[in-house]
Amino acid sequence: MKKILFILFISLISFQSFAQDPDLYRTWYLYYVYIDLDIPYYISDINPQIHPFITIEEDLSYSGEGACNSFSGAFEFLGGSSLNSIVFNNTDDDCGYQNHNSFENDYFWLLSSGFEYIIT
Questions:
Q1: CA 65: distance to chain centroid?
Q2: What is the mean pLDDT of residues 33-49?
Q3: Contact indicator for 55, 62 with CB cutoff of 8 Å
């Protein structure tokens, strides 16, 4: 489970248009991510089970949970169908399982890194 790439957001959010689509503003549950752009990594393979999610609000603020820690922040709309995360905060409790901690390190790094996400 090296780096969880921005493909995570493409798998979480897939829409025709950002500005027109109210379906963006809801809770999204993470079922899998792509590692190295080729290999799907299924969240259901993590033991003990976790249920990561993100809720995106109409003002582009977001909140959610990784393996055991919560997070919140805000996206910025860049125009067209692009956005990026401009604010990110998270709790940093030890989850008690190394694979949970590793997942959160990668997941939170992805959310906090300021990548431009393109909604397609």
A1: 9
A2: 82
A3: yes
